[in-house]
Amino acid sequence: VRRIGVMTSGGDSPGMNAAIRAVVRTCAYYHTDCVGYYRGFQGMISGDSVNMNARSVRNIVNQGGTILQSARSKEFLTKEGRAKAAQNLRDAKVDAMILIGGDGTFRGGQVFSEEHDIPVIGVPGTIDNDIYGTHYTIGYDTALNTVVEAIDKIRDTASSHNRLFFVEVMGRDAGFIALNSGIGAGAEEILIPEEDLGLERLLDSLERSRRAGKTSSIVVVSEGDKIGKNVFELAEYVKQNLPYYDARVTVLGHIQRGGKPTCFDRVLASRLSVKAVELLLDGEKDLMVGMMNNEMQSCSLDQASKGKHKINKDLLRISEILST
Ligand code: F6P
């Protein structure tokens, strides 16, 4: 492998820049050329790229977003789109790719590699933390801290007005952000897709906490929660059944994807990305790098895109105990 391409794809996440920096600098360290592709698979299809050297990535380790920009490419889902991308890489003499993104990125990368025999290595970057083969994904820790900081602020106004707040957080079909930020921010209840709490139990619990003397409460709701109502309907339902609650809704939205990466995310991104380049230089392909129990590991891209990263349900029990 003489020339490595790198791109970021799917929803951006804080720490992607630290990952790009580490890929580019590791290539420079091993005297290997590095090419950045803009807007993920879309830039590979249109040949929108930039030659990168160690100095191209100065002053970005601390920046949110991604200097290579990101996209969810529809064209790459087609055989023709992937063939165009492969041709562009061959023309540019790029003989392997590092893909920084989530499971959709890895699925696309695996099909691409099988069809065109171009080795790829995945680096998990998503705030959702829902990737098999790694205990942490790049951006998750920063997103958690953003959420906790936001809920702390909501708590101030909730307690001043004796209100109940439903705070919706991201995570797609996974409850990692909700569960961990909920515990960190001291939420009364945490609703996640992996566990159906049920409406009755939610009402019981809110009623119990009222009786226990709580005057304000925060319920963290994962956007993928399966309770059968969206967060606004849920707040309405609670107001109707427990009229003494003055309920409000806050949807945190895309602020969860922005901001300076935490030190944890910067170190994680750096470790994963150095490993990704080294795997390619060792002749490996179609793997995703991950961190399990603080050790760098790898699994097949196939496992990474199909497997499920299990949530620690014991955290629900912890939350229940602590909201007594
Ligand atoms: O996968 C990251 C994520 O932020 C999810 O948590 C969320 O469901 C989704 O992306 C939002 O996507 P978009 O930015 O395209 O609206």
TrEMBL record:
GO molecular function list: 6-phosphofructokinase activity; AMP binding; ATP binding; fructose-6-phosphate binding; identical protein binding; metal ion binding; monosaccharide binding
Protein origin, superkingdom: Bacteria
Annotated InterPro entries: ATP_PFK (IPR022953), ATP_PFK_prok-type (IPR012003), PFKA_ATP_prok (IPR012828), Phosphofructokinase_CS (IPR015912), Phosphofructokinase_dom (IPR000023), PKF_sf (IPR035966)
Catalytic residues (positions): D128
Entry keyword set: Allosteric enzyme, ATP-binding, Cytoplasm, Glycolysis, Kinase, Magnesium, Metal-binding, Nucleotide-binding, Transferase
Pathway named in the protein's UniProt entry: Carbohydrate degradation; glycolysis; D-glyceraldehyde 3-phosphate and glycerone phosphate from D-glucose: step 3/4
GO biological process: canonical glycolysis; fructose 1,6-bisphosphate metabolic process; fructose 6-phosphate metabolic process
Binding site for substrate: T126, I127, D128, R163, M170, G171, R172, E223, R248, H254, I255, Q256, R257
Protein's recorded name: ATP-dependent 6-phosphofructokinase
Record organism: Christiangramia aestuarii
